[in-house]
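Each record in this resource describes a single protein on a pair of labelled lines. An example record follows, reproduced without changes.
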Amino acid sequence: MAGGSGTRFWPASRRHLPKQLLALATETPLLRMTFERLGNLAPVNRVWVVTTVETAQASRNILPELPPGNILSEPMGRNTAACAGLAAQAIQKVDPEGVCIVLPADHVIGEEKQFRSAMAAGAEFVSREGGLLTFGVRPTRPETGYGYLELGLEHSRKGEWSIHRLRQFVEKPDVEHARTYLDSGGYLWNAGIFAWRATTLLDEIRRQIPDLASGLDRIGEALGTAESDAVLSEVYPSLPAISLDFGIMEGAEQLWTLPVNFPWSDVGSWTALAEGLSGDATANASRGRVQAIDAGNNVLVSTGPVLSVVGIDNLVVVATPDAVLVVPKDQAQRVREVVEGLHDRGWDDVL
């Protein structure tokens, strides 16, 4: 899943250059990192990317190995249920028994051998047992920025991995509840990574969101024909915009979760990115030509000019050739407000 509007990482990200196309954590774009992380899980012709019309060509440039038809272009974003459903329609036409692993293209994951082992175990399980499976990350801190998964009873094991019934999805908690979840050992972070048969997902969409299903079925019938682009452009913008979690997973008939323990981050803000950037002795996380004097615990990024800071602490400072952002680390999520303000002022040239 490689959509995104390029708001949380402004000014580095823009409408035509959202987070997954940027080299934020390393010198490699996050989309490319996601692709390379797969290793031998699937051959190249079985890797599909769903992105936007505006970023389709950039995605092809980053992943030139992919068959051109394996990059699906959304005319506009309609949230993750439509995105995953579009991919499932395309995949079932190629392989009616196809099993899907669904990955956001903008995560940072460590211990990639462990990652591939867990993905293979989850895919094998849903191929045999059916249902919808979500991969949950064992929490390491009382994080309030993630949703949680409540573990049910263990159902089976595959090597080192255990598969559990999924009791419920839990909204992002306050700190007190997050500590309770962490201490109990019975909750996982919701990583937004899934496994299922393409047909299983489409069946659940038909059962729970019939309006979305009817539109996806029209699109699916046209895929691979001369009418494909026209039907996609006509139907897709009218699809219900709803997430997989709320629209499908919370009401699914057969839900599983597989707890994983590899390092994971959804890189949701400039502050979260600090975990993957190089740090100095004063805990400044930096990228680009940056110097810090009597400054500590900052996130300092420049993609253009030399960036120098003196005597500041706990800030995010990002400089690009045409824009600068300065925000306290504990308010980094408010970058969305900056983007909205720029749009209101008509300064779309920096969006």
Remarks:
- The radius of gyration is 21 Å.
- The chain has two domains: 19-265, 270-350.
- The first strand starts at residue 49 and ends at 52.
